[in-house]
Amino acid sequence: MLIKTKLRFAALLPAVFALLIGSLLWASWIRIDHARLDADIAEKVLLSNFELNVLTQEYLLYGGKRAESQLRIRHQSMGELLAQLKYDDIKEQELIDALRYGHQELGSLYTLLLGGKIQAHGQLAGALLIRAQAMRAKTQQFADIQHKRVLEFQRLTDKSIMVAMILLAGVSAALLSLMARRLMQGIAQLNSGVRRIAEGNLDQQISLSTNDELDALAQAFNDMSRKLRDSYTSIDNLNKEIIERKQAEDALKKSQALLNDTQRVSKLGGWEYDVASGRVYWSEEVYRLHGLEKESYDPSHPQRDIQFYAPDDQVHIAKAFQQAVDLGEPYDLELQLIPARGQPLWVRTTGQVEKRNGKIVRVFGNIMDITEAKLAREEILQLNTELEQRVIERTASLVAANKELEGANADLEGFSYSVSHDLRAPLRAIDGFASILREDYAPKLDEEGQRLFQVVSDNAQKMGRLIDDILAFSHAGRFELHLTMLDMNALVQQVWQELEPQRAGRLIEFRVSPLPSASGDPAAVRQVLQNLLANAVKFTRGRESALIEVGGRREANETVYFIRDNGVGFDMAYVGKLFGMFQRLHGMDEFEGTGVGLAIVKRFVTKHCGRVWAIGKKGEGATFCFTLPAETVAKFGTIRLRNTESTITAPQSTIINLQSNKESDHVHK
């Protein structure tokens, strides 16, 4: 408990006892007044009784109306006094009842006396005297009781006051003694601790458990000693801090100098407008851009600052600055600045606002010299204009060259087609005459001659197949695509069935995962699948247990398909040659072919705006992938695809159901 609280309690205790004593005195005074009032009434009753006796004697001696009237008045007054008497116990009640009853008897006797015969006055007078004497005795007894009670109340009050005073003195003495002892103990501990601190023992801690002002004072001394200790022990730290602050100031000066140099090099300066004071602050670069000296010009006049801009631009910067100050709207403008010294500049000036509690307090921004950039942009615009003109001219020349190239391609395709057709007849003649000679002159030829005729026939047939492939490749270039949605599962199964003669007598496991549909030309996609599956069948010929897999997945706006085999594979170093004309990675003695099939695949896939690629490893198989559009390119009409000079016709159609077999995964052996 705090000392001030204890003192307040000690000061409040006498007041409490005084209030208690006052209450006792007040209650005693009320009881004493009540007893005194009853005693006074009893005295008045005695006096009335005496007066009644005197009046009775006067009436008996002299008679008369006055004495009679006085008797009646005194008797009534005595009754009123008796009515005022109050009792506190049974004895007092019995006395008051007896007095009231005697008063009634006196009234009856007075009535008889005043209205009776003179001969009976002697008897009535005796009776009245006896009754009056009895009432006087009882009244005196009641008065004695009240006087005695007054004395008892006075003695009781005196005793209570004496006991209260003794208790007050005892409690006050005990409380003050306890407070003094606790206070002196705390002061002694404080004195001892402070003396040790004064002697230099800054580690001294004053410990008090009083939880009062002395405890707070002890904690204050402890804090003081700790701060003194920290102060004494941190002199080196203070010196270090001074050194560090000096270094920081030097670094700040260097940073400021570097900032000024950076602003000068980048031609970028900053400014600030304080709304409350109306002051404007410029960085050194802003002064330099305006051709002014910092010491000779005060920028705190925005209207005067605006006059440095070109006349046509002054309206724009004035409006933008005022809207920033009034409405908080930022701005970013490119304006022409006319400095006090030097040539006019193109600058980019920006402004931002700072708000506090919803009120604009600051507008700030920067000014940057963009003269070189402005001139460069204008030069670039001029160059772009010239470039666009050149592009137009170049495009016209490219269109003309493209038309010439289209004509040359058409002539080349026609030439290839004519050459291919013209070569067919001699090749058929060579093959036919070689067969006739071999049949007619076989007995005249030895084995070497027959072998040579067979070589001639085989090469003629090979040349025929090569011509057929060239014609197929040329046809693929001129092929007009008719796009529709394809059921790839059915198409793969149909092509696989058509390859039955090539895989006859072989054990081939054929796996087909569910294939998503795609947009494409049925004939072209069939040719792609046929060439790729035929290659897979051919290049797995040396495997006892061949495996060919077909799968696909939907990606974005295209569908990817793959055909994987476990055949001889190829070296990835030569993957760039796979899809070229007449490119072969295996000798004719290993695998037959002309090297045109994959070129046809690439041409058909490219015409669909798709991609084709291959992944393989020598001796471990190969995977060929190609993509097709996920949806039909157009529902009506003919469109032209990129990277091709042919057209694609996209009629209205649904998915072509090429085969009723709905199985998604088939195994053929």
Number of strands: 15
What is the CA-CA span between the terminal residues?
104 Å
Order of strands, widest sheet: 2-1-5-4-3
Helical content stands at 55-70%
Calculate the mean pLDDT score and round it.
76
Computed structural class: alpha+beta
Overall shape: it is elongated
Number of helices: 14
Order of helices and strands: HHHHHHEEHHHEEEHHEEHEEHEEHEEEE
In percent terms, what proportion of residues is strand?
5-15%
Written overview of the protein:
This protein has 669 residues and is α+β, with helices and mostly antiparallel strands. The chain is built from 14 helices and 15 strands. The strands form 4 sheets. Strands 2-1-5-4-3 form a 5-stranded antiparallel β-sheet, with helices on both faces. The chain has a 5-stranded mixed β-sheet with strand order 8-10-11-13-12. The chain has a 3-stranded mixed β-sheet with strand order 6-15-14, with no helix packed on it. Helix 3 runs antiparallel to helix 4 (121-198). The radius of gyration is 68 Å and the shape is elongated. Residues 633-669 have low confidence and may be disordered.
